[in-house]
Amino acid sequence: MSLIENTISFVKQKLENAEGGHDWFHIERVYKNSLLIAKEEDCDLTVVQLGALLHDIADSKFYDGDETVGPKTARIFLESQNVAESTIQHVINIIENISFKGGNFERKFNSIELEIVQDADRLDAIGAIGIARTFNYGGFKNRSLYNPEIAPNLKMSKEEYKNSNSPTLNHFYEKLLLLKDKMNTPTGKKIAEARHQYMEDFLSQFFAEWNGAK
After folding, report:
1. Burial of 204 (0-12, 13-18, 19+ CB in 10 A)
2. CA torsion angle for 35, 11, 67, 137 (degrees, to 10)?
3. CA nearest neighbour of 120 among 179, 204, 162, 169
4. pLDDT surpassing 80 at residue 162
5. What mean pLDDT value characterizes the chain?
6. Phi and psi at residue 103, in whole multiples of 5°?
7. Spatial contact of 170 and 138, defined as CB atoms under 8 Å apart
8. Of 52, 57, 89, 88, which is closest to residue 70 (Cα–Cα)?
9. What does the radius of gyration of the chain's CA atoms come to, in whole angstroms?
10. What pLDDT, in 10s, does the model give residues 58-95?
11. Residues 6 or more apart from 171 whose CB is under 8 A from it?
12. What is the per-residue pLDDT for 60?
């Protein structure tokens, strides 16, 4: 099998019992989004593919906040596939710099490949899929749907963001609605516009129903 086929097989096995918003199907959607965006960019397609497939191989939120597990897991696998060190390091840089982390995280690495995979990952966090993933994770963490007495915190530090237990609906204001203006590529920005509007419409309907409107 090819490197990409081997990577897909590895990721499917590794994430077999993962939480529904961070499982193989999330990876597959990000992978497809990455290929779509990459068509319009001058990039190293192999790095984009590997970065997309391995970006959430061990999400820190499921490892007590340990951000080293994902990069280590990816490196061990890529070394087993005899991938060039320059490619491995590029993929590790993508994994280490892709996350939102409260919006206050300053990237320490930049490349068009990172921008592509980051846009692809963010697209899966908004729109209809983003809404479904948000409430799925909120249920997984046993969070309330919404509490009018707990306002969204728009100035969270990275640590506050990681440790937040606020109602699920607050996540729209603390992250999801901010992503449209943080997209990197023209293709990512275009797709994000429609998905952002879908979330806005959902929130309008949610609050109407919450407040007993017809």
Report:
1. exposed
2. 80
3. 179
4. no
5. 91
6. 80, 0
7. no
8. 57
9. 17
10. 766 655 667 888 899 999 999 999 999 999 999 999 99
11. 134, 138
12. 61
pTM above 0.70, yes or no: yes
**C-alpha span between 53 and 56 (Å, rounded):** 8
Residue 183 has pLDDT above 90, yes or no: yes
User: Please, is 152 exposed, middle or buried when counting C-beta atoms within 10 Å of its C-beta (0-12, 13-18, 19+)?
Assistant: middle
- What's the token pair of residue 191? 């797709």
What pLDDT is stored for residue 102 in this prediction? 47
Tally of residues, the chain: 214
